[in-house]
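Lab channel / #folding
Pinned by the channel admin:
"Please post every new chain as: sequence first, then the structure tokens as a reply. Keep commentary short and put observations after the output so the thread stays searchable."

First post following the new format, from NK:
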Amino acid sequence: MKVKAILVLLIALNLISDLYSQVTIGSIEKKENVDEKIVLKPEAYDSTKNITYQDNPINYYKYIGLKLYLPPFSDPEIGNYNVEAYCKFLFSPKPVSTKLNDPFKKDRGGFFNRCSDDHHLKFKNISTYVYKPFQYYSGNLNGDCIVEISSNAMEVSDKYYTIINVYSDNERSRLCEKIIDDELAQNKDTSLSVSGIPIIKVYNLNWSIRKIRDTKVLFLLRNDSNGDSVYCINPFHFILVPYFLKKKELYQNKNVVHAGSKWLCIDVTLDKNNNYILSYILKNDNNEQLILDNDLDFITEVEYIKKQRDEKIQNEKRIAQQKEWEAQKQKEVNIRLDKQRQEKEDRKSVV
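Reply from TO:
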């Protein structure tokens, strides 16, 4: 009985082993109403590069959470109409009302066509999404009285911001259209009129609408100095703080080689005399100084020595390979000469 029981047990174990060792082919019933989502991830952030244009908007997401610095810049010249003014790239999530200076004044020695009847005019505010608004122009253009508003440089520049979010595609369109619609709605009664004819044409609003609609991405920033939320349509005015710190780490207080000469990089800074471009200040043994704005114009001494060593090794390899090739060719020549000599001797012996 024991032998029979053991035999039965062995057969059962063998069947189980066969069952689990086989490749099974079958159909898996697919559950309906299950959304399959493809999650696209941005490429990894490279701290040796400043914020750059991305062909694929998804790659802007790699900047979320990083800190930005907005270098100082100047306000547009007061009284000088400039529709493309530098400081028109920051917007508030909510409109603010700003008091307009009287736009109906003498300009370039003449009065504005329909704007000269001052007794018909009333002072008005304007509602705008421009962040920290500053009115820098009021005047006449092609017969229209216009008002120009931009961000106040003193209030927005020389400050740090953090990238909170990046909006593209549908979400960007939704937010941008909301800004546009709200701003137009807020200002529907802003235009003054003489005899029912509107005489203020706020070009700033038209400019904002065009610029916001043209942008592919919308950045949500936090002003680190006061906690304000700010929309940005052009982040390329900023410098990424990790990028700046990386350049300092790589070059400051390091010996570098420029145009074949040895220099010491004494500082990595923003050159206020050159539009705050990231610049490298070099000094040589003669206390001569040189300012460069491109780190491709020099390399560190460590990199230079390594490059020289690598080039020497590669050159030695090329020489060795050339000698090996020449030796192989000489060997082949010798074999051919030996063969010809042997054939000549064989012919002599036959004769």
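NK: The two ends are 98 Å apart (CA to CA).
TO: also worth noting, Residues 6-11, 15-32, 103-123, 190-207 have pLDDT under 50 and may be disordered.
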